[in-house]
Protein 1
Amino acid sequence: MDLSEFCDRFDERLRVEDYADVDAAANGLQVGPDVTTVERAVFAVDAAVGTIEEAVEAGGDVLVTHHGVSWGGFDRVTGRKYDRIAPLVENDLALYAVHLPLDGHVELGNAAGVADVLDLTDRERFAEVGAEHVGLRGRASEPFTADALRERLGDALDTGGRDVQVLDFGPDRIEDVAVVTGSGTDWLDEAGGKGVDALVTGEGKQKAYHRAREAGITVALAGHYATETFGVRSLRSVAEEWGLETAYVDHPTGL
């Protein structure tokens, strides 16, 4: 498959263009030649030196990640930027990255993966970013207690040995759950305004404690990396449906 076709297919499926004005990341092909062929695609959460080196060892033609190397552009390719980009160019490894479009995609996204873990029904889009969304909201098939929510997430997600932290400020019966993977506590006000019982995300901020407590919402912090493995794994499955060879590089941070 031509690299251009590979990228165009994912761009269209993930509605990359619709997020152009709301995402600091340069979604789509970030590093790569104008013309090349993709036979083997490698998938990872982060485009870091470690994952890039493993993708090269795996014989990848393209590395697909959630977190790429371009965030609003850069003027110089030096230091850490050079260390990441040089092995891509030297080994003819293209880099395709997709950030917010992958967080909120209703089928392939990170939030959708966590919603599957929690068996949420009646799903709708959540966490507004301009005219788009980066999360999902749904109903628990069976109500959770805060401890049960912690246990479900801890059992299903690879947290790198880190305990799922729960701020237990919501109702005893958790039924209405919102999911915003990664760093999602900025949407606590939206959750409170919509009557959400619990917000599941990856990592928190200091101010989230008081905001959650005052809003009466339980917050589950299951790890930034752990909550954002779902999207790239889903994209791997899509690539396999296209007949491509694939590999997945797991490089958990524990954060």
Protein 2
Amino acid sequence: MVKNQHRKFSILRCGIPEGEFHPCCKILESISEGIITIDLDKRITFFNKAAEILTGFSSKDAVGQFCFDIIRADICTEKCPLDQVVKAGTSPRDIPAFLINKQGEQVPVSLRACPLATEAGDIIGVIEIFRDLSELERLRRQVARTYSPEDIVGRHPKIRQIFAVLPDIAESDSPVLIEGPTGSGKELFARAIHNLSSRRDGPFVAINCGALPDTLLESELFGYSRGAFTGATRDKPGRFLLADKGTLFLDEICNTSLAFQADLLRVLEEGEFTPLGHTKSIKTDFRVVAATNRDLKEMVKEGTFREDLYYRLNVVKIALPPLRERKEDIPLLVEHFIHKYNLLKGRAIQGVSPEVMAFFMVYPFPGNIRELENIIEYAYILCKETYIRMEHLPEDLKEWAQQHRLDRPATGSLAVEEAERIRRALEKHKGNRLATARELGISRTTLWRKIKKYGIE
């Protein structure tokens, strides 16, 4: 049966003998989109390199197999592209779909299909083109601010420990307290908890408690009725009501007054509140996730934070380390932000120079991850080259580097070190790229690109 498929595919090769490779096939091997050809029996006859990366299956494993056993897309049963081409005579284009790769992960793709025909016009199968939308989907979630754990970059042990328990934390519906310095990604984790929880279909309502005085904070959270005070010309629902059946994120809870903390505690314990100007209380059902950049336990000792509210919020605690304590995550974060801004700005910057990466590894990042992202975004304004260099960084960073007399690393030294680290990991896992990528904390696509870049066998 498989031999028959290869005979059919030789027609596509324009009559070239079976053992030879047509130049068109070499082109298909080199492009970044997954290319798969399927015969009328729904067996795969061609599988390019990009399809291997996309699905996790090798061409050797895929060719000759039924397409639905390898591609495993959500449209296979109801909107089979082969059936649409052969039976309906249509050529579906830019069809959104999800395929399940060999590791069981769901990959968003865009699919196109067109017929394969002989010179006589007889259809012998279809060619399906898959475009990986993983990066675009991640960017869409960032724009829509619907983050999931896949959007959180990090391989530091503390981050991995949080990853391991995050689904359980989300499922529990208990209050969560997230501690971490400004810019460490507290809201990102709060949104991931919401999107993993049973309240994911409800609203995620966030408010920065430190940005408003008590009077405005109370009106924002409790809401008010028309005529409650001068200027209240209409009813305004508060965040407590807007967060009903969802999650309320109280950022920088440490900056609130003791009086406000007492009011907040009452709402959390009773599950109801009274808007300003109302005479009746309103029931509400929300989960609270609070964040702080200060140690609330120390504030309780100082008398600046209510002890009863602290224990009400501190059912589950997540402690995020500052970026200076998770240096191994800096290369991953740099790569992540470069991917992001390449998509946003339509650029093709490949990365940062070894000198810039060496600087990042010693710079203390007082603004944490947010500061790193701002630095990369700024560099995109000045950088017209393939790599971001020191001259593309903000002036205050260049001054910091001069003050600390950082030695310039030998050209390519970090690249050599990275290549050697990849070689050792590949040797350790006997060439298994999935296991290697997991150990290095990078995607299989990134690993494949670095292997090609460094010429690793």
Protein 3
Amino acid sequence: MLKQLVLAAALAAAAIPAAAQASPLPAYPFVHVNAEASRYTTPNIGALDFVIAAPDPDPAQARATVETRIAEVRALLQEQGVPLEDLETRDVRREPGRNRAGEATAQELRVSVHLIVRDLSKWRAVVEPLLDKPNLVDFATSFDIVEREQFEADLMADALRDARRRAEIIAKGAKRKLGAVTAVTPAGVKNVGATIGLVRADIGFTRVKAASNVDSRNFLSVDAIKLVQPVDVVFRLE
């Protein structure tokens, strides 16, 4: 039975015209370009993530500590007029603690907290008191814009214009006319350069490790964010 299936598959493949089978290159003259557009903008929404860590060996006391800190955070939000529904606690677990030297200590109760601040004029008033509270560790911040969808649409239009400009330069140099777009993707096409032999040997990737000694006061600033939109486009050459 297995041999019959293999034979049937082979016959089916042989019946497919060569032009219809997969090819690493388009069957027409083309130019492939990549481009990107970027813009800096001022964020108008922020998020703060942190962990409430209670190192008490007594589970009941540890839970009481966590509940006290959550109550204090909620009181702070009410004082600043931040909606309590923008506060989320999750992922309650017990795990080994860590001292300042990074050494393992006794188990502690840990709860992850995610807070959205929709009015960044209140950012400092909300974040600064939290930085000084006991049991609150592992702070992280992120910022965004509410109008991201429209912003990304504008970036895409900019990136496509830049891609056409680049392709027109190449087409002119090759004494060809730039034709229609035949393929486009909003991000880098994985391995497309290697597939058609267009990757330089000296191209590589570098991983950057974040600094571990960031001053907690840096969490108080709201900086401009840079949004980048890459695009890969294939144009037909006439």
Protein 4
Amino acid sequence: MASSSPAQTTEHVGLGIAAIVCAVFLGSVADASAKWFGTQGYMATQVVFMRYLFGLLPMAFFLYRSGFGALHTTRPGAHMFRALLGFGSIVLFFWGVTLMPLAEAMAISFTAPLFTTALSVPVLGERVGVRRWSAVGIGFVGALVVIRPGTEAFRPEAMVVIASAFVYALAMITTRRMSATETNVAMFTYTTIGAGLISAPFLLLAWQTPTLTHLALFSGFGIIEGCASFLLIIAYRNVAAAVAASFDYTSLIWGAIFGWLLWSENPDATVWIGAAIIALAGIYIARREGTAHTGPALPEREG
């Protein structure tokens, strides 16, 4: 008998794919924007603050659509911890993209699912079989291909992006633990507000007054990031993780396009080979986890 699960209907699969395609494009635009703001002299902490400040606009819209009842929680501490992780991962990533080519940074950032799988064993007590451990190992080999430690092509700043991926993986582990009791709107709202508050004190360390033009661009940046985050939630609600991941990795192509158009960046063949290895390992892990978990795991672009 055919399943009547909404995620398996043609309409919902189509919605999920449309959502992930739009989310990936918007997220790539936001990543390129973050790198551009860095080239204009803005510190990563100020870029993050602006992202969350103007991210309040899409947050308010989604909250209005869902109602304030969706914010009910008995775990405020967990939400704050998740917001801290979201802040840390995005600051490190925005810092990293200002130091290295965009596509290369994005390729390295996709080690996050590998870290998530590895951390799910000690943190969540999940069982990871030989196949998934092998995929994790192969994925990290791909990362080494991109980073090329010990060679003249090695970029020490790549470790900033690796750190971002690790913190992001911790955020995803926290999301898995909270998803059974917390709504998507609650996690989205509390992360936006919490991470924004966490970023505010860092403005005392480095502040550059935006021009009116830059302020307008910051507002668009925050709205785009907020919409991309929520579109990812919609995507993973309607299609299997492996399907969504297949489209998610296309952000590498967008990163290469934006990097070439804006900064004349041209990743060499080694970066593409390593990125392909990471992507294939990540997609395989998503497929295996899709059969290993009965409950939803909601990857969300943090933040």
